[in-house]
Amino acid sequence: MTKKLIQVGNSKALILSKDLIGLLGLENDAVDVTVQDGALVVRRASKPDVQTAMRAAGKKYEKALKQLAE
After folding, report:
1. Count of CB atoms situated within 10 Å of the CB of 21
2. Alpha-carbon distance 38 to 12, whole Å?
3. 60-63-65-67 Cα dihedral, nearest 10 degrees
């Protein structure tokens, strides 16, 4: 399947057909876009691990959180 890039402002866009979106199992999902071996790879974005994110935020903002708790 060959697709053409289109101009959108100062960027280029790739339009994915409804059929292709269906094959990927996407709807209005966020996607991760990477380049591997010269190929553009589009995957459904992984859902963040809330516990890991909370631990990281706790470490990053530990001092501020302690001050708020006082």
Report:
1. 13
2. 18
3. -160
Q: CB of 14 within 8 A of CB of 31? A: no
- Please list the residues that pair with 34 across neighbouring strands: 41
CATH number of the domain at 20, please.
Answer: 2.10.260.10
* Tokens 């591997």 found at: 36
Domain that holds residue 54: 6-69
Q: What token pair was written down for 37?
A: 């071996």
Residue 16, both tokens:
């994915």
Show the tokens assigned to 23: 């094959």
For residue 17, what are the β-bridge partners? Answer: none
Supply angle C-alpha 9, 15, 23, rounded to 5: 155
Instruction: Render pLDDT for 23-52 as a digit per residue (tens, 0 to 9).
Output: 888 877 788 899 999 999 988 887 777 777
